[in-house]
Amino acid sequence: AQPLAPAPKAAPLRELPWAQLNFLHTTDIHGWWGGHVQEASFSADWGDYISFAKHLRDRADADGSDLLLIDTGDRIEGNAIYDSSKPRGKFTYEIAKKQNIDLICSGNHELYKAESADGEFFHTVPDFKGNYLASNLDIINPNNGRRQPLAPRYKKFKTKNQGIRILAFGFIFDFTGNDNNTFVIPVEQTVKESWFKDALRDKDIDLILVYGHVDVRSAEYALLYKTIRSAQWDTPIQFFGGHSHIRDYKIFDSTSVALESGRYMETIGFMSIDGLRTADSDKRPAQQQKSKVTFSRRYIDNNLFSMHHHTKKNETTFPTEHGLNVTFAIGEARDSLGLGERYGCAPHDLWVSRRPYPHDESIFTWLDTQVLPQSIKPSERNKKAIIITNTGGIRFDVFKGPFTKDTKFLVSPFTSGLRYIKDVPYKSASRLIKLLNNEGPILDMMKDGNTYLQPPEHVAAQYRPDMYIASQSQELHSYTAQDQTPLLGGSEDELFPGYTTHDDAGKDGDDTIHQVIPFYQVPNCVQANIGFNTGDEDKPEVVDVMYNEFIQKWILLGLGYLGESYTSEDTHSYADGKSFTNIMTEWVKEHWDVASEECT
Ligand SMILES: O=c1ccn([C@@H]2O[C@H](COP(=O)(O)O)[C@@H](O)[C@H]2O)c(=O)[nH]1
């Protein structure tokens, strides 16, 4: 763990259901290689994960089982290690490749910008040669300008100890927001391609493994399941998903399941399968063959208490030399970026989802009542404006105490600035937010294009309403991330807050037994008024419509629906393209005294 990270707290744990074939799964790491330096539950780093995997590989080698490591993309954007380095990603590729990942693929964040897709081409694909698959993703080769698959479409291999014959595919969901140097081939088209149909004709397969940056409950995985099942009626199919930032497990049928393992290095997903046929099945005595294939899952809280327990190691025996070197390298990278630099001191916690919106402790209320109105000046003096920003641009909570360079990028990693359209009739401008937030044509188009404006876990919750219901009834807990105090062996009240996942297999998936954390709905977008109040008697005739440039497409479409026809030609850059991230940080510097009591 990183030197500043809090020590993990002891808590009641469920065991790993170790079996014939075992998997460790990470997804949506978003640059959190250093783990969470403010949260004890997730305080292990990539170096610890390397040690953890090594011990479990040794266990597999010792008992003749197998272990495979999988990562399903979105390794970049969302943490200062990636976003504040110059060039962005300077440390990321070096850190990632230190882990021995058996199967890896791209997420959508690797594709938003041409240079990060090229980063996959020049770094991640060769670093994980033979293990990186791109079943539905092409790139323009930067060396010759020609379109080609980013990596092989699929592979067939045998596991080391059991000789299980696996056919693997690596997908990305039907993403449409990529830059023009990559091509995401819709899954519907991919399943009709001859290479895919040919691959599925192979009958000498013990397991089909579909991993991808794809929500496990998506239409894309439903279609893949249906297509594969019709070609291979009884071969077990294991899916690994990503993108929606939640812990989830879906059961397709008795021999096909899907695991999704959260976000931000909070979760190491563990999956195991027993009773698989192997290449050597015929040579083995009949009694060794189990008739039924069984699947088990566990979501491991990413901290050393869990890791020590699951490997039966302790503080002295757990860290490997390789793991320690990587921990040290991450620390050096963090130091060289000066991530501890303090910009201000947060007077209290501000939450993305743990408080309703609006609420004094909602990060979005902070934005629309303080940061935006106090920072943004409309295009000309004495002008009035509305400013709209999407909630998905805010990626993490602010904890009471120091607001550092680290915090800045955890909360707002993206580079987009603000743009504006001058003098929009107020009667239309004032109706825009409803169109962006409520049922209607814009929301239908977002759904069709697989592009959303909310934080990903909220998009996921729309299909899993129990995520809200389960927590909405809980009263608000007044705890902070730093003061989680476990009391073992007792009732729900004595546990400390954390993940309490409810998936298709029940409520026993999390390795650590926790108290429920509240999870409240947030809208797609929030709005601040500048120079007037919504309740004012005299409404302005016209206002500047200002917005985060990431949502420009939707602003123009929305205004079009409201009868105001504008194109990108009518839009202007605000403050020479200053990023929203910098606007927020300047506000913090000005309003949250760095020397205040909370930080001493
Ligand atoms: O520049 C950006 C890029 C993304 N967003 C928001 O993030 C989600 C997608 O996040 P994933 O981690 O890929 O699931 C997207 O829906 C936007 O809400 C952004 O605001 N700005």
Automatic annotation (TrEMBL):
<dbReference type="GO" id="GO:0016787">
    <property type="term" value="F:hydrolase activity"/>
</dbReference>
<protein>
    <submittedName>
        <fullName>Uncharacterized protein</fullName>
    </submittedName>
</protein>
<dbReference type="InterPro" id="IPR006179">
    <property type="entry name" value="5_nucleotidase/apyrase"/>
</dbReference>
<dbReference type="Pfam" id="PF00149">
    <property type="entry name" value="Metallophos"/>
</dbReference>
<feature type="domain" description="Calcineurin-like phosphoesterase">
    <location>
        <begin position="22"/>
        <end position="246"/>
    </location>
</feature>
<dbReference type="InterPro" id="IPR053828">
    <property type="entry name" value="Nucleosidase_C"/>
</dbReference>
<dbReference type="InterPro" id="IPR029052">
    <property type="entry name" value="Metallo-depent_PP-like"/>
</dbReference>
<keyword id="KW-0732">Signal</keyword>
<dbReference type="GO" id="GO:0005576">
    <property type="term" value="C:extracellular region"/>
</dbReference>
<feature type="domain" description="Putative 5'-nucleotidase C-terminal">
    <location>
        <begin position="349"/>
        <end position="556"/>
    </location>
</feature>
<dbReference type="Pfam" id="PF21953">
    <property type="entry name" value="NadN_nucleosid_C"/>
</dbReference>
<dbReference type="InterPro" id="IPR014485">
    <property type="entry name" value="Pesterase_C1039"/>
</dbReference>
<dbReference type="InterPro" id="IPR004843">
    <property type="entry name" value="Calcineurin-like_PHP"/>
</dbReference>
<dbReference type="InterPro" id="IPR041823">
    <property type="entry name" value="YHR202W_N"/>
</dbReference>
<dbReference type="InterPro" id="IPR036907">
    <property type="entry name" value="5'-Nucleotdase_C_sf"/>
</dbReference>
<dbReference type="GO" id="GO:0005829">
    <property type="term" value="C:cytosol"/>
</dbReference>
<dbReference type="GO" id="GO:0019677">
    <property type="term" value="P:NAD+ catabolic process"/>
</dbReference>
